[in-house]
Design brief:
Beta-Lactamase; Arc Repressor Mutant, subunit A; 2 domains; six-stranded mixed beta sheet; 8 strands; disordered N terminus
């Protein structure tokens, strides 16, 4: 595959050659053999143990080729070159909601021009387990061990919903990524949203791109390292009219990004496009139906009790003590309520409690 390498680490990608992606186009041939799922990845799995402070960008530090500038400098340069960004970064109040693939409804898809053969094979899979075997097998053949597919669904007068499939990523990583809102400091997302081009990354390049290693960023990078997400490819795809976007992220336990050749990058893009053709519609339908049912359904008992305590002037810690739960759980329920009603502060939540006759 031919790609124009840029100084900011992003790559302008041309369509991959047929010989580069033949492995993915002929899925059945690629997966033949008893070891199709195992023993295909040679990536090192030992923890990197990055010295994040040493890797942070400093005036007297030699830059890492391909990722020397800060994120602000990279996106500013792209704005100047490409005009307005095609996508606005996720606004404050956005939450990422993990979704199990078993909850999605896959309708038979008629043959359409431009539909990839791999997408048709995945669509025809006899259930989630068979599709997971195919997806995991192809990931391993490319050298990846983790996959996330996320879809942003905009809403009028409210932060967007971001639904992320949870079946192909470590559960503990995903829980921390969502609950601790690590996605708000993930430097890959604005870089991908700003340019629309694939990002080839590793932990060292992400660390070097930071002018200062903030605590939340340190937590994100260390959590990624602990769960074997040390290098990979991330890119965005359009998901219909408006501002809907999909993000495909493939990660590997390999410590560096040098192993991601043009051929691997081309395969990754074609693989992500096929997954997008399969998952986009079911995930959009699930997200919209969940939002509609959530708007119509009453608050849960716990949500009502939390909101009542908040309206009485209690802090999250005081609410947790009174309801015999944790402050983290209280914050989780309050975030659900804020997203449901579009509230941005505790005063608005108290008003909502009154409107619902909870006080």
């Amino acid at each position: 595959m031919a790609a124009a390498h840029r100084s900011d680490g992003l790559q302008a990608v041309r369509f991959p050659r047929a010989e580069d992606v033949a492995l993915l186009m002929d899925m059945r041939t690629a997966l033949k053999g008893a070891d199709a799922q195992s023993g295909v990845s040679t990536c090192a799995s030992a923890s990197v143990q990055l010295d994040l402070d040493a890797l942070s960008a400093k005036a007297d530090t030699a830059p890492l080729p391909g990722h020397a500038d800060s994120l602000a400098a990279r996106t500013a340069a792209d704005d100047a070159a490409n005009g307005d960004r095609f996508f606005v970064p996720l606004p404050p109040g956005t939450d990422v909601v993990p979704v199990d693939e078993h909850a999605l409804l896959f309708e038979p898809a008629p043959a359409q021009p431009g539909r990839l053969r791999l997408a048709a094979e995945l669509q025809a899979a006899r259930g989630v387990a068979e599709r997971a075997r195919i997806v995991s097998g192809l990931m391993g053949l490319m050298g990846f061990s983790s996959l996330t597919y996320a879809l942003t669904e905009p809403h009028e007068n409210a932060p967007p919903t971001v639904a992320m499939l949870k079946n192909y990523v470590a559960p503990r990583f995903l829980q921390r990524y969502c609950d601790e809102r690590l996605f708000t400091v993930d430097p890959r997302l604005p870089a991908v949203f700003a340019t629309g081009m694939p990002l080839v990354w590793d932990l060292a390049s992400l660390a070097r791109g930071q002018a200062r290693m903030e605590p939340a960023m340190r937590t994100l990078l260390q959590t990624m390292d602990e769960h074997g997400l040390r290098s990979g490819v991330m890119f965005s795809l359009g998901a219909g009219k408006g501002m809907s976007q999909a993000i495909v992220s493939l990660s590997s336990p390999h410590a560096g990004r040098e192993w991601i050749s043009d051929s691997v990058l081309g395969q990754s893009i074609l693989f992500g496009m096929a997954l997008h053709q399969v998952w986009r519609a079911p995930l959009q339908t699930f997200t919209r139906n969940t939002r509609v049912s959530g708007e119509e359904a009453p608050l849960t008992v716990m949500q009502s009790r939390v909101l009542t305590c908040l309206a009485a002037g209690m802090s999250d810690k005081e609410i947790a003590i009174k309801l015999h739960t944790t402050a983290h759980n209280v914050d989780y329920h309050l975030r659900l309520i804020r997203r449901r009603y579009g509230a941005t502060n505790r005063a608005q939540l108290a008003y909502i409690a009154g409107r619902l006759s909870l006080i």
